[in-house]
Design goal:
heterodimer, A: mainly beta, 4-stranded antiparallel β-sheet, 11 strands, 50% strand, B: mainly beta, 6-stranded mixed β-sheet, 5-stranded antiparallel β-sheet, 54% strand, globular
């Protein structure tokens, strides 16, 4: 079945460590996105990519980095520079030219 | 920045009741989307709207694109327990490709 797979579902890390969240899609979508969700809040855009080897910062990119080496994959690294990394992270993809975004099941990151 | 105001913040209703929620924007939109998020999961697209005045249904759900192009409404008829979740409206996020700007969500609880 086509879809978006995020892994792992739950992730625990010590403060000061970098951590990479995986996002893979087999929908043949050109555009991919990373959003952050905090309790009681909407989703906020971290980074987006519309084509392989190109990506742009969203509203809250500080402390995060991404790569887009393959169309299917858009990993997100939460660096030690991110002041408050504990959150629910959602990856999405869409066909280029549309806003119909389809989401993965999310990764809950807890930094202790 | 552009704001999406979604109301009500939460609703607690009995099974069988109808539900109405709405979303307003500080600027004109050309697209409105409605998503539902179950606890611990990624949002799922319910309805997409593209024209002012458009009324679109998906089963017991009906959404409307407001004629001012600054608002949208979602109605759920004859609610059932599996309607429980958080409902988000979303529209274009400026200067961010085809990324979305999300409201803070309406949390719906349905009692049998």
């Amino acid at each position: 079945d086509g879809g978006i797979t995020q892994s792992p579902k739950y992730l625990f890390r010590k403060e000061g460590q970098n951590v990479t969240l995986s996002c893979e899609q087999n929908l043949n979508h050109d555009a991919m996105y990373w959003y952050r969700q905090d309790p009681g809040q909407g989703l906020r855009l971290i980074y987006y990519s519309q084509i392989v080897n190109d990506f742009q910062k969203g509203d809250i990119a500080e402390g995060y980095s991404v790569s887009r080496e393959k169309k299917e994959s858009f990993p997100l690294t939460v660096t030690s520079a991110q002041k408050n990394p504990t959150a629910f992270y959602l990856c999405a993809s869409s066909m280029i030219g549309t806003r119909l975004a389809f989401f993965g099941q999310g990764t809950r990151l807890t930094v202790v | 920045g552009q704001q999406l105001n979604q109301s009500p913040q939460s609703m607690f209703i009995q099974e069988g009741e109808d539900v109405s929620m709405n979303c307003t924007s500080s600027s004109i939109f050309n697209t409105w989307l409605w998503y539902k998020q179950d606890p611990g999961e990624g949002p799922v697209l319910l309805i997409a709207l593209y024209k002012a005045g458009e009324l679109t249904s998906n089963g017991r759900l009906t959404a409307q694109f407001g004629i001012t192009r600054k608002d949208s409404f979602l109605n759920i008829s004859a609610s059932i327990p599996s309607d429980v979740g958080i409902y988000f409206c979303a529209g274009p996020l400026p200067d961010s490709g085809y990324a979305l700007n999300f409201g803070k969500g309406t949390s719906l609880l349905v009692t049998p």
